[in-house]
Q: What sequence folds into this?
């Protein structure tokens, strides 16, 4: 069994990386998809050969309730159509845990089901919250799954100025699906998945 990393320095590094992404100027992003619920942009990732995606939309609810639905916990499986199982493998203090989850096949199963083991950390950010994660090479891969890898990812959720019952939710996602996949299929799937994430989340919060 691989050793788990020390949670405190990993959490700090992850938070700093996400704040850095949050400061990337608008001019570096290109729109990948736009729906009534969210806009998705992308730019080449500095972590791997794919893209870093940015998604943003307004969600009608308070930040704590939204983040409770996104971070590892009982709500996530109820509404996230892509996630098929989730187990919390280890829990650290300060809102840190290691979770293993699986995702459904996508694009008529061109993208087969995936498994991820992620370190997850939730912390305060401005007047709201940041919940972020990164994959670990930890534990054996289950049969019939390809082990994917999430480079630093996260969701910033802050109250919308002037509308305290609404929140601005901004996500940064860079997932390496691994396996033999055409990059165009991955890009199509990622943009759609992120847009659907917002519509599914809004339905769950009603």
A:
């Amino acid at each position: 069994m691989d050793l788990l990393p020390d949670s405190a320095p990993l959490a700090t590094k992850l938070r700093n990386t996400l704040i850095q992404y949050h400061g990337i100027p608008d001019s570096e992003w290109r729109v990948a998809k736009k729906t009534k619920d969210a806009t998705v942009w992308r730019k080449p990732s500095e972590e791997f050969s794919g893209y870093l995606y940015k998604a943003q939309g307004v969600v009608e609810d308070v930040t704590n309730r939204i983040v409770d639905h996104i971070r590892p916990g009982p709500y996530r499986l109820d509404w996230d159509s892509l996630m098929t199982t989730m187990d919390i493998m280890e829990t650290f203090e300060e809102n840190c845990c290691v979770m293993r989850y699986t995702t459904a096949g996508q694009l008529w199963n061109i993208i087969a089901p995936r498994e991820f083991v992620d370190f997850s950390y939730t912390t305060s950010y401005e007047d709201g919250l940041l919940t972020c994660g990164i994959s670990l090479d930890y534990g054996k891969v289950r049969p019939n799954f390809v082990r994917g890898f999430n480079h630093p990812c996260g969701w910033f959720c802050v109250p919308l100025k002037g509308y305290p019952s609404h929140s601005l939710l901004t996500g940064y996602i860079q997932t390496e699906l691994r396996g033999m996949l055409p990059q165009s299929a991955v890009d199509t799937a990622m943009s759609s998945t992120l847009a659907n994430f917002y519509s599914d989340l809004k339905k769950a919060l009603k």
